[in-house]
Amino acid sequence: MPELTYKDQKIHxxxxxxxxxxxxxxxxxxxxxxxxxxxxxxxxxxxxAFLKKKAAWMKETWETHHTELYHVDRLSVxxxxxxxxxxxxxxxxxxxxxxxxxxxxKGKFLFTYPGDEKDxxxxxxxxxxxxxxxxxKSEKKFSDLHSxxxxxxxxxxxxxxxxxxxxxxxxxxxxxxxxxxQEKIEKLIEEETC
Length: 194
Description:
Elements: E1 3-6, E2 9-18, E3 25-29, E4 33-39, H1 44-65, E5 82-85, E6 88-97, E7 101-105, E8 108-114, H2 119-142, E9 150-153, E10 160-163, E11 166-170, H3 178-189
Parallel strand pairs: 2-4, 6-8, 9-11
Antiparallel strand pairs: 1-2, 3-4, 5-6, 7-8, 10-11
């Protein structure tokens, strides 16, 4: 499956060529990501050049339609914030300390940070540590949701993909309910598009 990289996000796309069309068309499928239809005789390098020009639009469109998956990217050192994990929102507790630390304990996320750091640096660390924690949990939890082999992939502009008998899910889905994740697994198995 071909892919583009825009900033830090991979944009995978399925390319379908047809003899009866005359222009490149991009459709952002909710489940499978970018679906590209192009003229059969169009050179691959021209298709890729067009897609590179549209990469920002594709990323923005994807994130706009999946804002709930990107909440973690907007965390900051402010009281009253919550982090979603398996469909529930858990309070984020902030503590000044000597070093950076992130954990989940007794139904709350705990973030410790050095008091002498600037807010911008603290926010960066909070986001990085929260994403790392969720990513690690996705590796463990996804495989418990189905009898098929399921693994997590880095953030991609798709919810997942079916690769022979294996299902690969975007790690960000760990923020959704188990039922939601299982529904997406079934749709991937059935090779549905949305």
